[in-house]
From TrEMBL:
<feature type="region of interest" description="Disordered">
    <location>
        <begin position="1"/>
        <end position="23"/>
    </location>
</feature>
<dbReference type="InterPro" id="IPR004389">
    <property type="entry name" value="Ribosomal_uL18_bac-type"/>
</dbReference>
<keyword id="KW-0699">rRNA-binding</keyword>
<dbReference type="InterPro" id="IPR005484">
    <property type="entry name" value="Ribosomal_uL18_bac/plant/anim"/>
</dbReference>
<dbReference type="GO" id="GO:0005737">
    <property type="term" value="C:cytoplasm"/>
</dbReference>
<protein>
    <recommendedName>
        <fullName>Large ribosomal subunit protein uL18</fullName>
    </recommendedName>
</protein>
<comment type="similarity">
    <text>Belongs to the universal ribosomal protein uL18 family.</text>
</comment>
<dbReference type="GO" id="GO:0003735">
    <property type="term" value="F:structural constituent of ribosome"/>
</dbReference>
<comment type="subunit">
    <text>Part of the 50S ribosomal subunit; part of the 5S rRNA/L5/L18/L25 subcomplex. Contacts the 5S and 23S rRNAs.</text>
</comment>
<keyword id="KW-0689">Ribosomal protein</keyword>
<feature type="compositionally biased region" description="Basic and acidic residues">
    <location>
        <begin position="1"/>
        <end position="12"/>
    </location>
</feature>
<dbReference type="GO" id="GO:0006412">
    <property type="term" value="P:translation"/>
</dbReference>
<dbReference type="Pfam" id="PF00861">
    <property type="entry name" value="Ribosomal_L18p"/>
</dbReference>
<comment type="function">
    <text>This is one of the proteins that bind and probably mediate the attachment of the 5S RNA into the large ribosomal subunit, where it forms part of the central protuberance.</text>
</comment>
<keyword id="KW-0694">RNA-binding</keyword>
<dbReference type="GO" id="GO:0005840">
    <property type="term" value="C:ribosome"/>
</dbReference>
<dbReference type="GO" id="GO:0008097">
    <property type="term" value="F:5S rRNA binding"/>
</dbReference>
Length: 122
């Protein structure tokens, strides 16, 4: 009988392989994205010391107030602009994009494109 891995297990393996290829540095930190069924989370991380430099999510009251739903493409795009603005305020211009093992389409792509349009380079 063929056993099939769960989607979460496949995503975790993809993410592990991706993380072997790059990591965040002080000059170019990592923009890590996670999405659950209800919310999206984005962090900019310096992996050399393990610090989160900037974070934003759809759970925050300020972000949630601007959104109709917290789990659609529009919410992801808004979150991308929020994380980019916060990063630029801290003086972070370039990042490495870590899609977290999720495929680059839909919400993940919307967040990335919005962050690029708001001024982040990756």
């Amino acid at each position: 009988m063929v056993s099939k891995k769960s989607r979460q297990e496949v995503r975790m393996n993809k993410h592990r392989r991706l993380r072997n290829r790059f990591s965040g540095t002080p000059e170019r930190p990592r923009l890590a994205v996670f999405r659950s069924n209800n919310h999206m989370y984005a962090q900019i991380i310096d992996d050399t010391v393990g610090n989160t430099l900037v974070a934003a999510s759809t759970v925050e009251k300020a972000v949630k107030a601007e959104l109709e739903k917290t789990n659609d493409v529009d919410a992801a795009a808004y979150l991308g602009t929020v994380i980019a603005k916060r990063a630029l305020e801290k003086g972070i211009n370039t990042v490495v994009f870590d899609r977290g093992g999720f495929i680059y389409q839909g919400k993940i792509a919307a967040l990335a494109e919005a962050a690029r349009e708001a001024g982040l380079e990756f």
